[in-house]
Amino acid sequence: MRPEWTVSFLKEKVREGSKDWQELSMESQEFGNLESQLGGEALKVEFRKSGKVVEWQDRYESILELAEDEGIQIPFECRQGFCGECKVKMISGEVSMEETQGLENGDETDNVILPCVAIPITDVILES
Ligand code: FES
Description:
The chain is α+β, with helices and mostly antiparallel strands. The chain has one domain (about 5-125): Beta-grasp domain (Ubiquitin-like (UB roll), Roll), CATH 3.10.20. About 25% of the residues lie in helices and about 20% in strands. It is built from 4 helices and 7 strands; from the N terminus they run H-H-H-E-E-H-E-E-E-E-E. The strands form 2 sheets. A 5-stranded mixed sheet has the order 2-1-7-3-5, with helices on one face. It has a two-stranded antiparallel ribbon with strand order 4-6. The longest helix is centred in the N-terminal third of the chain and has 10 residues, at about 5-15. It starts with 6 loop residues before the first helix and ends with a strand. The structure holds FE2/S2 (inorganic) cluster. FE2/S2 (inorganic) cluster binds near residues 83 and 86.
């Protein structure tokens, strides 16, 4: 494992905007699960209304996939960030989204995300 590939290094790169989380995640897969290799805790995604707190795993391509695996129903159509059908309010946390066309004016300031394209970069609490 490259010594510079620490979780904090990767998160910093995402915050700087020089890399997106999905790209880094794919690049880092050859090194296995960074969180477990570094002894860090996996990110948690809480679905408040459903009363579930779930650990994020790199095998998921989106928070929507994680929700589906947990039996949490979030409506969807395109699964690519275009239609906005899956919109969910994020109570706290940060996510990376490679497509945001499905968001409308004011959604981002209201912390509305598109779980079909969202990857957590911190622990996240969602309203759903
Ligand atoms: S399902 Fe279309 S934007 Fe998420």
